[in-house]
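User: Let's play a game. I give you a shape written as tokens, and you guess the letters that built it. Ready? Here's round one.
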């Protein structure tokens, strides 16, 4: 499309030099117009391609080009072999100017094929010229129509590619952001896992070793105070040995993240009764366990939390309450399981749930229960005993 117009113009001009060699004046005019036409195309289109984005300048270029072609056809009709290349320049026009450009090139080409303007000596008649012009317009219109369809498809394809490129850019940015968030979440999950495991180990060590050591110390002190009463002293020493063995077993199971031994041997109500019975043997304080509702197996973490809460509550009664009796009530309700531990001891002034007071045992109890979306409430007053109430979701075993 770039070289062909110059090649055809050169061929036709050479042919004109042969045909018009007997008329030097006419030949000089035709050659001069050919040179001007070639220079005009070279300057406006070939050497300055950046001007194609200037619609007004391209319209001027096309009008002058059509005028030069018309002049050449009027002087030498065989220049029609060159003028049809004017269709290549129609693409430089904008909007409806293209239709006018196609019509202009078709009329110039039809004049060439007619042998000149109708009515001249060697030209065909007006009807013949009209027929030739219509044929040229039909062919050129069809070509232009398909060219426009191709341009539209290309424009749509380019727009789609641009949109896809933008979407890909946004997707890459989102993936990079998600990767960063994923790394951040992994880091937070690792930190949370480490913290949860530390809290679990702290609670288990408190519920096993700390309470066991406290019980051993209590029994050894009682054996020391027994004096010459050998049976009493032996009873306390045997109790200290039993507490040591039980604490060692529970500590090993805690390190292996296993269920308490009492829950492996029996269901939760029986495990609570066993814990309360052993506690009574060690302390001499009566502890009664009552179960209401329909007992059913719960998820292990639910039963472990309730059992450990009961153990911690009994340990607090032993250390601080100076109680004469304790009652434990395990209640199975529709969607909750509750445990109430009540004593008739000296009582105390409870700290707020978010306060800084209280020992680690109360903190551990609250963490266990809250970790299961449950609640823990402590009611007490000096001289009026203490009540610890725990409520956790009744999630069946295997759910």
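Assistant: Ready! My guess for every position:
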């Amino acid at each position: 499309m770039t070289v062909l117009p110059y090649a055809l113009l050169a061929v036709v001009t050479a042919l004109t030099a042969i045909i018009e060699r007997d008329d030097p004046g006419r030949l000089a005019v035709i050659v001069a117009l050919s040179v001007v036409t070639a220079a005009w195309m070279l300057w406006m289109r070939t050497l300055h391609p950046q001007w194609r984005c200037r619609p007004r300048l391209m319209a001027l270029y096309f009008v002058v080009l059509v005028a030069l072609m018309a002049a050449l056809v009027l002087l030498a009709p065989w220049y029609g072999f060159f003028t049809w290349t004017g269709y290549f320049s129609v693409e430089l026009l904008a909007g409806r100017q293209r239709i006018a450009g196609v019509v202009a090139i078709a009329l110039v080409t039809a004049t060439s094929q007619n042998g000149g303007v109708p009515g001249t000596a060697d030209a065909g008649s007006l009807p013949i010229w009209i027929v030739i012009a219509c044929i040229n317009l039909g062919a050129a219109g069809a070509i232009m129509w398909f060219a426009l369809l191709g341009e539209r498809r290309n424009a749509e394809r380019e727009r789609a590619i641009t949109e896809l490129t933008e979407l890909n850019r946004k997707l890459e940015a989102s993936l990079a952001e998600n990767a960063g968030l994923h790394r951040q979440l992994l880091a937070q999950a690792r930190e949370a896992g480490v913290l949860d495991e530390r809290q679990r180990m702290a609670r288990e060590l408190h519920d096993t070793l700390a309470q066991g050591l406290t019980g051993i110390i209590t029994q050894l002190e009682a054996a020391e105070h027994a004096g010459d009463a050998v049976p009493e002293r032996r009873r306390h020493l045997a109790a200290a040995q039993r507490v040591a063995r039980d604490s060692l077993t529970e500590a090993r199971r805690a390190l292996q993240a296993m269920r308490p031994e009492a829950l492996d041997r029996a269901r939760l109500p029986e495990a609570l009764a066993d814990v309360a019975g052993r506690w009574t043997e060690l302390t001499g304080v009566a502890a009664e366990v009552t179960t209401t509702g329909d007992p059913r197996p719960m998820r292990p973490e639910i039963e472990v939390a309730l059992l450990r809460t009961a153990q911690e509550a009994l340990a607090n009664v032993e250390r601080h309450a100076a109680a004469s009796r304790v009652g434990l009530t395990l209640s199975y309700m529709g969607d909750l399981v509750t445990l109430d531990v009540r004593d008739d001891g000296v009582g105390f002034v409870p700290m707020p749930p978010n306060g800084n007071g209280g020992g680690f045992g109360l903190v551990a109890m609250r963490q266990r229960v809250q970790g299961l979306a449950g609640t823990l409430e402590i009611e007490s007053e000096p001289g009026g005993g203490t009540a610890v109430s725990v409520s956790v979701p009744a999630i069946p075993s295997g759910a």
